[in-house]
Amino acid sequence: MPPGAPLTWYLGLSAVVFAIGTVGVLVRRNIIVIFMAIELMLNAVNLTFVAFARSLGSMDGQVIVFFVMTVAAAEAAVGLAIILALFRNRETTNADELVTLRW
Amino acid sequence: MTPTTALRWIVLLPAAGVFFHVFVGRRAIAAVKVVGPGLVGAAFAVAVVAAFRLRALPEGGILRDHVYTWIAAGPFRADAVLRLDALSAVMALVVTGVGFLIHVYSVGYMSGDRGFARYFAYLNLFTTAMLILVLADNLVLLFVGWEGVGLCSYLLIGFWYEKPENAAAGKKAFLVNRIGDAGFLLGLFVLVWTLGRHGFWTLDVAEIERHLDVLRTATIGGWPVPVVVGLLLFMGATGKSAQLPLYVWLPDAMAGPTPVSALIHAATMVTAGVYMIARLHALYALAPAALTVVAVVGAATALFAAVIATAQTDIKRVLAYSTVSQLGYMFLGLGVGATGAAVFHLVTHAFFKALLFLGAGSVIHGLGGEQDMQRMGGLRERMPVTFWTMAAAGLAIAGVPPLAGFFSKDEIVSSAFREMPVLGVVGLVAAALTAYYTGRLLCLTFLGRSRLSHEAEHHVHESPPVMTLPLAILAVGAVAGGFLPVPALLGHRGEAGAPLALMALATGLAVGGLWLAYQLHVVHPAVPAQVAARLGGFYQLVRDKFRVDELYDAVVIRPLFAAADVAARGIDPKLIDGTVNGTGMLVAATSGVWRRLQTGNVQHYALFFLLGALALLGYYVGR
Fold first, then answer.
1. What SS3 string covers B9-21?
2. Nearest chain B Cα to A28, which residue?
3. Which range of residues forms the domain containing residue B30?
């Protein structure tokens, strides 16, 4: 990490990555891609935490990032298992077709 | 105020019989025959002992049995306390004594009936309830007995419930009584409310009498409380004691077994209203207006029912209207302040009316179920005991001296002449009618030539001793009951001594009525039909009991049923169900629009998350 880069750059990058992730979740139809977009959003937030931790000289943000990464790993395991089960039953990974919650 | 524990046994003994008959009775009919009457007889014995102990007390003494603390609600107290004073002693002796004879008679009359044990369970319960009523120390406990006799009358009138008209008669008795009971309850509420406002939370009769000065000046809604309470309680009495306008249940009450009619008409039930007003005479003394109403209603009922009785052909129906009429006398007596005379008449009436009903039951029993007097006649030789005992009762109720009815009726009529001469005249006219219809009943049943149907002719027989013995004992009461010092016992000595001229007139009317009946129905049996034809419409009106039942049917029952019909077929399915179903349908209809938001697509939900998050963000940032 270049020592001279100001906090706002990191935050800007983080916002861009988060926005890309959000749009990906909203517009893509393949649930595996949606899943990856969620990972993008999580990592954008992680970047924010780490940047603030560095800037404020506090370890709190870094600790939280570890938590987020742990939870994200668990989520990936469970989420991928669900996707696998869905695919076995429905033979599709298209979100538009997985609408049994509908009226 | 002497404490004792004897009084509770007067109530508990018949009550024990109820349990015995219900749980053991059906498998031990022979035991029921002994236990049923036996326990009432035992209660009578206890009552006699208690009455003697009461006599031994100084004047105005009271035996008091505190059984247990019943109601203690805040400041209000109503305990299960039994009390024996002169009035309740007289009543308890009549209820248990006459009740005992009716129980004995029932053993013969009901023998072989499928519901024998059930019958005696009801009969004992009836006696129990009536004893609670007469021995109660406070009006709340009195009300328990009051409702108890109402329930038992329903059970017994509809005893042979397989026949729909019997069940209907039972229901009618219950419902008509209920109307009166509503008034009675309201009266109690007004009374306890008024006393409570002045800090006396009680309905004890003795306490009420102690706080009369509070009641004297109290008003409710601008009306004096004694008048309001008096009229409301009297409304209850008109139901229970079969007065205008609520008498209609009593003539139908003959649907029950005949001994039940005797019990209802003589010892229990109908005397409750008379007893209640006699018990509260101190309260009624504060309300002359209420007493006037009592007297007028009583006199009107006495005359009205006596007129109806002259044209009935069913032997039990004649007696039923006769009871209504005689109860009218008692209320006339109460209304003119002759409480002692009224209770005296209650006692003598208990003897001769029980006797008349049991005699009628004996006749019906002997003829195998025939009740129409037009198909009787000439039974004097065939049923001698029944004839002679019923004749004694007939002369007693007609008022022939020196039999029981003469004394009591005379005292009431002479008191009425003192207070309200018009009502005295009404009483005399009713007395003449009483003599006539009683004579007619005796003539049509026992004298003249036989008009029996063929099978009744073969069936006719005198009843067994278990039935005739009570008749004989009651006959003694009907003959000699007039010499009982009942008014003096109750401390109403001043009333005694009707003017000689009045006595002569009353006797003349009684004998004249009987003579007329004999002339019309034995000597010239063709004449009554001619008289009836001459009277035409009026005779039919009387024979149809002035069509009061039809009037109530048109004015009360039909509108009520019509209203119920509107409720059942209009309001309930349309308004109530419509509201409930309409709520559901409204939700279903509107949800058709809103549920389109629920696409099931996760990404749509996520979009709304985002929009919501942005909105919140915008709100907090832009603030």
1. HHHHHHHHHHHHH
2. B603
3. 13-40+87-106+117-277
